[in-house]
């Protein structure tokens, strides 16, 4: 019997419910997947709280890895028994099985375990588009990355180091700072006791950085703008501390003709060719051992409520997964 985590109203972690579900057979263009591991992402909490609207009742989660058990009519790129991963699909990844559109799937190489795939598909593709699509970064450039010890952060730091890009990271504790350094972060600012923008200016001889990658949002927005060099770019790709406040166009001018973008992963993986390019580059580096995926938290799917509490408490380091 299949099971899934679902929610019937928005709210705290306690709205998540473990339910028995009927999966059924795949229709045209669809497949049925048996999940082996499910990704846990901070963005999941946005759907649960209602920040990201979803028709209720709803499933939870957008990332998982597993094996195709059945293929519907018209599916030619995948077959029964194929190993696959996905991210950005319709809600419902927090489940033991599901039927979904095959268009969302990414073939998973044998060299990459299911739990690694579930821990890195969203985070890894996010790091990929941030480093390879947003701005023409070159070896020797220095950037600022908030939450450097998080799941995206640790992948980003390793990838950036391979590209010759220096990363000034921020963390909340000295322990997390050491983790970030061990994964390639050049300098780390512990924001609970250091002024971020002031420290960035010290590290860049007063110039600031050309790009800030900010997944935190409300609490770091001001320091991100103040850390940018003239004509610098703020990449606000997350809101872990809450939505960023309204941005004044004049404020951008006064601070040095700054640019701001609020990108979404979906817009960088919607094209199958681009998605394959980013995924293949990511998978090749992981398979070769050049990028290590840090899985420090593992949960049973039935314990989704506890997992969300841990996530929102900020105690997670690296990636988290549900093991099935």
UniProtKB/TrEMBL annotation:
Keyword Oxidoreductase: yes
PROSITE patterns: QOR_ZETA_CRYSTAL
Highest taxon in the source lineage: Bacteria
Domain Enoyl reductase (ER): 11-322
Keywords of the record: NADP, Oxidoreductase
CDD domains linked to this entry: QOR2
GO MF entry, a single one: zinc ion binding
Protein name: Quinone oxidoreductase
Taxonomic path: Bacteria, Bacillati, Actinomycetota, Actinomycetes, Mycobacteriales
């Amino acid at each position: 019997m299949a099971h899934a985590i679902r929610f019937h109203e928005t709210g705290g972690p306690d709205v998540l419910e473990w339910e028995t579900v009927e999966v059924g057979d795949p229709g045209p263009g669809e497949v049925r997947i048996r999940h082996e591991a499910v990704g846990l992402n901070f963005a999941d909490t946005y759907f649960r709280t209602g920040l990201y609207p979803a028709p209720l009742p709803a499933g939870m989660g957008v990332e998982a890895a597993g094996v195709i058990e059945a293929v519907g009519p018209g599916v030619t790129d995948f077959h029964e028994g194929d190993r696959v991963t996905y991210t950005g699909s319709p809600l419902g990844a927090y489940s033991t099985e599901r039927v979904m559109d095959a268009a969302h799937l990414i073939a998973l190489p044998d060299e990459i375990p299911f739990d690694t795939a579930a821990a890195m598909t969203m985070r890894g593709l996010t790091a990929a588009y941030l480093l390879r699509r947003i701005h023409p970064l070159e070896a020797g450039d220095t950037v600022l990355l908030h939450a450097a010890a998080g799941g995206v952060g640790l992948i980003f730091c390793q990838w950036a180091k391979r590209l010759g890009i220096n990363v000034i990271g921020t963390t909340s504790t000295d322990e997390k700072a050491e983790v970030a350094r061990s994964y390639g972060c050049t300098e780390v600012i512990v924001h609970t006791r250091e002024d971020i923008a002031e420290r960035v200016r010290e590290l860049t001889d007063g110039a600031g950085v050309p790009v800030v990658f900010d997944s935190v949002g409300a609490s770091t927005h001001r320091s991100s703008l103040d850390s940018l060099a003239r004509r610098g770019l703020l990449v606000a790709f997350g809101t872990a501390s809450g939505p960023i406040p309204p941005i004044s166009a004049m404020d951008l001018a006064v601070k040095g003709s700054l640019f701001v973008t609020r990108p979404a992963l979906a817009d960088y993986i919607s094209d199958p060719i681009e998605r394959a390019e980013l995924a293949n580059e990511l998978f090749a580096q992981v398979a070769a051992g050049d990028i290590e995926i840090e899985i420090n938290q593992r949960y049973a799917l039935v314990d989704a409520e506890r997992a969300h509490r841990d996530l929102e408490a900020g105690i997670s380091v690296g990636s988290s997964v549900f093991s099935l």
